Amino acid sequence: MEKQQLLEHLKEFLTPRRYKLFEEVLSQRTNFFTVVTQDIHQLHNTSAVIRSCDVFGIQNIHVIEERQAKRIDKEIAMGAQKWVDVNRYNSTNDCITSLREKGYQIVATTPHGNAHNLEEFEISKPSAVFFGTEKDGLSEEVLKEADVRMKIPMQGFTESLNISVSAAIILQSLTSRLRHSELPWQLTPEEKLEIEFNWTKKCIKNSEQLVEDYKASR
Predict the structure, then answer these.
(1) Is the dihedral of CA 80, 65, 129, 23 positive or negative?
(2) What is the mean pLDDT of each run of 10 residues along the chain (218 residues)?
(3) Structurally, what CATH architecture does the domain formed by 31-188 represent?
(4) Domain segments of the chain: what residues?
């Protein structure tokens, strides 16, 4: 209840247009699907995937950085990292374990092996979709741990796409099908409250001080 009251207080410092937009965007957000990138060498690719997550309503992205930690390229992400929750891991195993504990099946994107075509992929289970590099793909660890493999059908000589392109194609397909289904894909009231609270704070320059002042006045 306290967080809801704090949110209502902070909303007074936003324009009605801003918090109406928050409500509209949150109504289309989902945690039913989530995205994972593994050791992406080129910074702009990870940033572009974050942008695609925001565009298609994916609230959480998980970034595995076993080899080298990198900051998010703000210019490429175009502010998307402000609205999408970026979860960082130094270990692939830790990431997979955490996602399984949250009830996600592990989905490896790969053009090789016994992979399901994107259109045939069964969307009924909460899924964490893993993306690797264009050159090396996902690690053997992810491929072995995967519950299912997925691929984008291709008819040309080239057998792989840039990760940012692959992610955009896959996310558009999965989220479109999800929203036309009867699956419980929307955020819970508790998730919406937490996200809206965080978004609101990010939009107010002195939000932490406002929160402290409000608590002190109660």
Answers:
(1) negative
(2) 86 92 97 95 87 97 82 68 93 97 97 89 97 86 96 83 93 98 97 96 89 79
(3) 3-Layer(aba) Sandwich (3.40)
(4) 31-188
